[in-house]
């Protein structure tokens, strides 16, 4: 049914417009009369539960940052069966992001190119919504992903991140430092160890007892990934997320003229699968066995999730697959994993 809807209707809509339309439905599912009804159909089996970051996750599969930028749909996403929702990326200063169009489907590749540019209502607005969410008796684990405000110079990035961390860490179940989006000028340069170290040290100090993770790009070299993983352990972080979107366009099936017309931005979806799992394995070699590693990138099926768990992931998350799989995506994955419960960590 969803495949038909996608082919006949959604694929013909502007991707960002389609996303906003879907968000209206998801937000409605977060209203209390509807939430328990939907959750009854999507609730993960008890054997799906994962203990990580001092928290209990109902499922190892959650929603990656970028889907719910303003913390408006977490309750509805919980109703759809996701084990955690990572909201954001949130910046200290509200910003509109890059000009539209800025989101493009590559349907033959089951992929998306985005250059959204951290469009969000800012940390103060996110904090107000998170306070309301935390009052709900039943909700997903809430991660908050923070990034650099566009108007802030890279030389002042530490203070900018710290401002967001101080406001949002007390309201988050875990906090993520995003230094890997390709859509904010200068941001990826913060992945260099000499600049990343003082940033993570400052955010670590500002985030208190809230678990802290860092998210890196798949475009780092293998040695670069090792360096980030080692630094995260050295500084006492609680985990890493492997990985963000890629700027690579290698091996795509979509017609070159369509890819070229889409232009710059981060590529997500199925083409990221191989590099993302390579990055995951590299990280796992460098960190302790109890260190939390969240795998992202190219995850669409229960087998994709299981492959990441087998490669050492603690948790997994996705975004682009929602577009191609529809509203029961999390239920499909949870049921697929439950079919082989002995293999789930």
TrEMBL record:
Q: Where in the cell is it found?
A: Cell membrane; Membrane
Give the metabolic or biological pathway: Pyrimidine metabolism; UMP biosynthesis via de novo pathway; orotate from (S)-dihydroorotate (quinone route): step 1/1
Q: Please tell me which top-level EC class this enzyme sits in.
A: oxidoreductase
Keywords carried by this UniProt record: Cell membrane, Flavoprotein, FMN, Membrane, Oxidoreductase, Pyrimidine biosynthesis
**Which residues does the annotation say bind substrate?**
69, 114-118, 178, 183, 244-245
Q: What membrane topology does the UniProt entry give? A: Peripheral membrane protein
In terms of PROSITE patterns, this protein maps to: DHODEHASE_1, DHODEHASE_2
- Locate the residues binding FMN: 65-69, 89, 145, 178, 215, 243, 269, 298, 319-320
Q: Does the keyword Glycosyltransferase apply?
A: no
Q: Which cofactor does it need?
A: FMN
Q: Indicate the segments forming the Dihydroorotate dehydrogenase catalytic domain, all copies.
A: 49-338
| Reaction(s) catalysed by this chain's protein | (S)-dihydroorotate + a quinone = orotate + a quinol
The cofactor note from the UniProt entry for this protein is: Binds 1 FMN per subunit.
List, alphabetically, the Pfam families matched. DHO_dh
Q: EC no.? A: 1.3.5.2
What positions constitute the catalytic site?
181
Q: InterPro entries under this entry?
A: Aldolase_TIM (IPR013785), DHO_dehydrogenase (IPR050074), Dihydroorotate_DH_1_2 (IPR012135), Dihydroorotate_DH_2 (IPR005719), Dihydroorotate_DH_cat (IPR005720), Dihydroorotate_DH_CS (IPR001295)
What family does the Swiss-Prot or TrEMBL record give for this protein? Belongs to the dihydroorotate dehydrogenase family. Type 2 subfamily.
Q: What does this protein do?
A: Catalyzes the conversion of dihydroorotate to orotate with quinone as electron acceptor.
- Can you state the subunit structure given in the record? Monomer.
Name this polypeptide is given: Dihydroorotate dehydrogenase (quinone)
Q: Which organism is it from?
A: Microbacterium binotii
The gene designation is pyrD
């Amino acid at each position: 049914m969803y495949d038909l809807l996608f082919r006949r209707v959604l694929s013909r809509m502007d991707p960002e417009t389609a996303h906003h339309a879907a968000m209206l439905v998801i937000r409605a599912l977060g209203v209390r009369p509807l939430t328990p009804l939907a959750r009854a159909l999507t609730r993960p089996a008890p054997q799906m539960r994962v203990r990580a970051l001092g928290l209990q996750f109902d499922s190892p599969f959650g929603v990656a940052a970028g889907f719910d930028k303003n913390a408006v749909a977490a309750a509805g996403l919980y109703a759809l069966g996701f084990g955690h929702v990572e909201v954001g990326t949130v910046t200290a200063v509200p910003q509109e992001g890059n000009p539209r169009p800025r989101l493009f489907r590559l349907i033959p590749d089951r992929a998306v190119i985005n250059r959204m540019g951290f469009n969000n209502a800012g940390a103060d607005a996110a904090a107000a919504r998170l306070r309301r969410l935390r009052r709900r008796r039943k909700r997903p684990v809430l991660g908050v992903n923070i990034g650099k405000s566009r108007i802030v110079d890279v030389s002042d990035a530490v203070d900018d991140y710290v401002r967001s961390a101080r406001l949002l860490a007390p309201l988050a179940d875990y906090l993520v430092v995003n230094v890997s989006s390709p859509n904010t000028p200068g941001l990826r340069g913060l992945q260099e160890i000499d600049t990343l170290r003082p940033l993570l040290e400052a955010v670590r100090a500002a985030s208190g007892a809230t678990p802290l993770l860092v998210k890196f790009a798949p475009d780092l070299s293998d040695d670069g990934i090792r360096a980030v993983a080692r630094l995260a352990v050295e500084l006492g972080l609680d985990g890493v997320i492997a990985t963000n979107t890629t700027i690579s366009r290698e091996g795509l099936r979509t017609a070159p003229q369509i890819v070229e017309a889409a232009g710059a931005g981060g590529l997500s979806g199925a083409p990221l699968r191989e590099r993302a799992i390579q990055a995951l394995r590299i990280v796992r070699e460098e960190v302790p066995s109890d260190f939390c590693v969240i795998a992202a990138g190219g995850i669409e099926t229960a087998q994709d999730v299981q492959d990441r768990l087998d490669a050492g992931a603690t948790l997994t998350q996705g975004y682009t697959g929602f577009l191609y799989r529809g509203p029961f995506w999390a239920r499909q994955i949870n049921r697929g994993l439950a079919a082989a419960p002995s293999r789930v960590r």
